[in-house]
Amino acid sequence: MHRISYGGTSVDITAGAGMPEVLGWGRYSAARAAAEQNQESYRAGLPPATLDNHPPIGLFAEESLGFPGTPGISGHRPDGTGWSPRFVRTEERVDDASASFVLEDQIAGLQLVATVAVGSGAVVTIDAVLTNIGSTPYVVHSLAPSLPVPAHAAEVLTLSGRWCMEFQMNRRPFIGSTVVENRRGRTSHENSPVVFVGTSGFAESDGHVWGAQLAWSGNYRVVAERLGDGRCYLQLGELLLPGELELAPGEAYDMPRVVATCSDNGLTAASGRFLSHVRQSVRPAELGPRPVNVNTWEAVYFDHELDRLLELADAAADVGAERFVLDDGWFGGRRDDTKGLGDWHVSPDAWPTGLSPLIDRVRRHGMVFGIWFEPEMVNPNSDLYRFHPDWTLTTDGYDPVLGRHQLVLDFGRPEVRENMFDQISRILTDHDIGYVKWDMNRSIVQGSGASGRAGVHRHVVGLYELLDDLREAHPDVEWESCSSGGARIDAGILARTDRVWTSDSNDAADRQLIQRGASLLVPPEMMGAHIGPPASHTTGRVHSLGFRAATALFGHMGIEWNLLSMAPEDRTALKEVIALYKEHRHLLHTGVPVRLDHPEESLVAHGVVDAELTEGLFSVASIATRSSSALTPLVIPWLSNKKIYRVEPLFIGGEKPGVDFAPPGWMDGGAEMTGGFLGGHGLSLPVFWPERALLVRVTEVSS
Ligand code: DGJ
Question: Does ligand 1 come within 6 angstroms of the Cβ of 328?
Fold first, then answer.
């Protein structure tokens, strides 16, 4: 057996002749115990009426050995052969933290090079490249690694939702198989390429949890399965459309990376490893404090009028914003959402004097200027489409299905990528621009590439390539991934962008849940969270500034509210909020994000603590009316038991979380409590009104 380890996580993998099998993974103890169970003498007996062997859950599980679940590798040659390969290990290289295997099946004509590693954030990563070493083409159906999880995992957690209600946590018993399939061509609002399983009733700070995600922004298939013999595994891979990936002799497929995590003490610690991994693999602290964005979309939509935008820039600077992002509508013939996509030159109609007057004003205020693009899209009513109608991901002979009046360009074609690189680069070179909001507003339907084959895979590879090239050419620009809000948030895009637009919903009550789910994958400093107007543009619901601000504070904060139409007292209150964000952003963006458990479902609580456990900022939000007014105290188990903390409420704009006639004693000017008390008894809570939040600041007093 090989054991690789890093940062407290280990993976045990079979030594031997065939496909490697992960025997156990996790904290040392869990991995060892699981590995021992799998040693010959500990192996479970064979149930009757099964095969004569015990089919392993190979790293790429093989049907050819009787694996009864979803095979980890499948495909075929033109004559149908090669569909059920069985690999022989020809080489292996194992060091402390990684193990690489070269595997071959001479009969099927395939070579597989797979690497399992434990790295930054103490996550497990799995990479693999499949090469066709045969003499005829090989069509790949799937290449998806399997990670066994102990049979005492009893519940499955996935994320699902819809536009404006993304990242909802779904739990179900771990029985049979749970399959999440995405065929939308982008990561999607509806699902996320991630799965967690855990022991019965696992909570944020309790229970054993295992999780895995796929670093991929296209189609995917995520499986959590309990086999008939009781063994359990997770399997994640790209979902390839029929015939989408044919490898010519000598050609290779580099599958998207799988990133896995685990914890012996709950979901927050498990997802925390995902976040640490992201923090260590993207442009980290070098980007500095995350600036306050003002985004123009909900303030002006397509109504681009220079004087109004100049005034908006002045107002943005006045409230303390640090980045001003001009959204959709500045280019080509784009006066509404029916035309112009693809023509990335400054519109002479809307901007007769160009963008410079606005950019100059923004820069004079010391703010960074940002701009919106939707590079993968083209409107049939655009010059680009008139010149290159064949550049889209569509299928000859069929009427294409439009989405928001637009089609998807085929980024699988080098000439399309070159065109976009040149158009975007020209705008970035000719103007003083420090930020790009990269949008993607429709899913891909019947998307064939130039050859007539399904083109999603190549499109996503091309997207990554273009983003990488643009980032290299414009190293000072920051990039935001937006896709009608949260439809493109995954580890693949997080490795290439500096921020995500989490959801088009700025409704604070919905955002509490959206951000909670997204916090499984996205660190707060990358999670775009804006304060919208009192009445949400996507739900019509009216919320107080205190509630909206407390919600946006726990992400990368911005403003989506029309600063020109707000009352003077609102502007003053907003300034206070922005000052509060600036005061706490170091803690919020470098500390350890934690989610808190509370038995009352309508109470959403989370926070951030610094690594030394000397300070923390927490939020408790009430998102609905309850039948009982008395609330169980909020247990905060993330502080140091022995330390004494000063615990005090922060009232944004003086706003209280609810009726004020007899709040808990600590809310009247603060109180001192030990971390042990907060983690044991918990913090007494006031009677909340619905859709109100309470911020709690915790600061160490002495040891
Ligand atoms: C969808 C985005 O999520 C919005 O923020 C905005 O940029 C619009 N697209 C613009 O069309």
Answer: yes
Cβ–Cβ < 8 Å for 356, 418:
no
Pocket lining: 374 vs ligand 1, CB cutoff 6 Å? no
What is the assigned CATH class of domain 293-585?
alpha beta
Right CATH number for 594-702 from 2.60.40.1180, 3.40.50.300, 1.10.3720.10, 1.20.120.450?
2.60.40.1180
Are 486 and 505 within 8 A, CB to CB?
no
Q: Which parts of 427-511 are beta strand (E)?
A: 435-438, 478-481, 499-501
- How far apart are the CA of 439 and the centre of ligand 1, in A? 7
Residue 444 burial (10 A CB sphere; 0-12, 13-18, 19+): buried
- Mutation test residue for ligand 1: of 335, 484, 530, 538, the one with most atoms within 8 Å of CB: 484
Flag residues of the chain having pLDDT under 70. Answer: 27-45, 284-285, 703
144 and 69 in contact (C-beta within 8 Å)? no
User: Domain spans of the chain?
Assistant: 2-40+55-282, 293-585, 594-702
Which of 215, 186, 214, 66 is closest to 223 using CA atoms? 214
Residue 297 in contact with ligand 1 by CB distance below 6 A: yes
Integer CA distances (angstroms), 530 to 128, 167, 437, 578, in order: 39, 17, 14, 11
The pLDDT tens digits of the residues spanning 663-675 come to 899 999 999 999 9
C-alpha to C-alpha distance for 137 and 77, rounded to whole angstroms: 6
626 C-beta neighbours (distance < 10 Å), count: 15
Look up residue 157 and give its two tokens. 């957690």
Per the DSSP assignment, residues forming a β-bridge with 75 are: 140
CATH number of 2-40+55-282: 2.70.98.60
What are the catalytic residues? 439, 504
What pLDDT does 54 receive?
81
